[in-house]
């Protein structure tokens, strides 16, 4: 096992050192700065009053007009340079329709360089309270139920976000290979997260072997699929916006990087569960041979595969629900819809992740059965040596 993990671990560390972003602004970052006026801040403001008004749009010839209601709101700036000031802003129809009342807190944009003084506009709702409450509740529940292991998983999650924010995302915005960047970052996350949450053991190492195998498979299959399907990656407003910032970005590579990162959580879940099942079976019946242990482990694995495949498909379907609703409105053949550039990306992402997930199960099961028996044999041999030494000592 170490013959596999040590080279992979060294390669991951070398990859992190070589590919770590220099900190210099990328072309996309420089271009994005031009879209935001210098000195722009995002202060919060409390709504003092709301006055709706009709902002309906005239319809096309022969079509009824669109009835819309916008609003003018007076707000009190509660933070930043303009704290304590009262400003009037206009709220779009979709914002007013979602509900804005006196006392609500909004996030505004403040343009310090606007003519006639600082200008304020609606940016978003303030969501600090619900997000903070849910985050605290999540941490408390994990800590209470999973105890120290749960706390360790939270630390691992923080490390994962650190790698994503400081290494993967800046690397994807630079001239580095998206595939290599996502693979190195994902491997680094898995090395730390698995051992941190589950401890240094042969069982955890088995899960890590299965996870790395799955990641490698995702990268290879994803590269082939993206190339064969000619996925451009320019299928959403976000990618179109990225293209305006830096048209030289490898958007097909970004599709592949997204497939690799998306596979992290599911692969980790499946492999650690499968490794734990093998070790539990071995502890219950140490007399099981490799073939029996593998066969019983795969019985558990098949159930896990069946449920997790549904999880992957429904997770992607939920994320793409508005897109699916649009296709429901279009009068075109279902096969044309499934193979369109917008939906093909999700279909290929789902299929590649599902195939890697399914194949990671037998690999993890086989490795777990082998190392569980090997560890048991080594422990038995060590015990026998100690007993022999004790017998020899008493014989003297």
Automatic annotation (TrEMBL):
Keywords for the protein's UniProt record, in alphabetical order: Membrane, Transmembrane, Transmembrane helix
InterPro entries per the UniProt record, alphabetical: YibE_F (IPR012507)
Name assigned to this protein: Uncharacterized membrane protein
Residue ranges crossing the lipid bilayer per the database entry: 129-146, 153-173, 179-197, 209-229, 249-267, 305-330, 350-383
């Amino acid at each position: 096992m170490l013959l596999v993990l040590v080279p992979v671990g060294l390669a991951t560390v070398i990859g992190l050192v070589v590919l770590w972003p220099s900190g210099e602004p990328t072309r996309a970052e420089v271009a994005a700065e031009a879209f935001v006026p210098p000195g722009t801040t995002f202060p919060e403001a409390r709504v003092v009053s709301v006055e709706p008004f009709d902002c309906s749009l005239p319809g096309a010839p022969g079509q009824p007009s669109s009835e819309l209601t916008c609003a003018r709101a007076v707000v009190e700036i509660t933070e930043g340079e303009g704290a304590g000031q009262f400003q009037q802003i206009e709220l779009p129809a979709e914002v007013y329709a979602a509900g804005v009342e006196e006392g609500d807190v909004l996030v505004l944009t403040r343009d310090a360089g606007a003519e006639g003084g600082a200008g304020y506009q609606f940016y978003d709702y303030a969501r600090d309270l619900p997000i903070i409450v849910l985050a605290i509740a999540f941490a408390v529940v994990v800590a209470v139920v999973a105890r120290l292991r749960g706390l360790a998983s939270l630390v691992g999650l923080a490390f994962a976000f650190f790698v994503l924010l400081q290494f993967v995302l800046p690397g994807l915005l630079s001239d580095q290979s998206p595939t290599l960047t996502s693979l190195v970052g994902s491997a680094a996350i898995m090395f730390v997260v698995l051992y941190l949450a589950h401890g240094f053991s042969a069982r955890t190492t088995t899960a890590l072997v299965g996870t790395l195998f799955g990641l490698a498979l995702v990268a290879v299959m994803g590269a082939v699929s993206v190339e064969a399907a000619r996925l451009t990656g320019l299928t959403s407003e976000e990618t179109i916006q990225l293209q305006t910032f830096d048209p030289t970005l490898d958007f097909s590579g970004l599709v592949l990087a997204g497939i690799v990162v998306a596979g992290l959580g599911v692969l980790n879940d499946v492999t650690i569960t499968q490794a734990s099942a093998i070790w539990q079976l071995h502890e219950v019946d140490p007399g099981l041979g490799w073939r029996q242990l593998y066969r019983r482990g795969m019985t558990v694995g098949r159930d896990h595969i069946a449920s997790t495949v549904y999880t992957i498909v429904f997770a992607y379907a939920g994320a793409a629900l508005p897109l699916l609703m649009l296709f429901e409105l279009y009068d075109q053949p279902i096969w044309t819809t499934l193979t369109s550039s917008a939906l093909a990306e999700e279909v290929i992402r789902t299929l590649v992740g599902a195939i890697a997930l399914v194949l990671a199960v037998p690999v993890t099961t086989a490795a777990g059965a082998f190392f569980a028996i090997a560890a048991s044999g080594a422990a038995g041999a060590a015990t026998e040596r100690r007993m022999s030494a004790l017998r020899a000592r008493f014989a003297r």
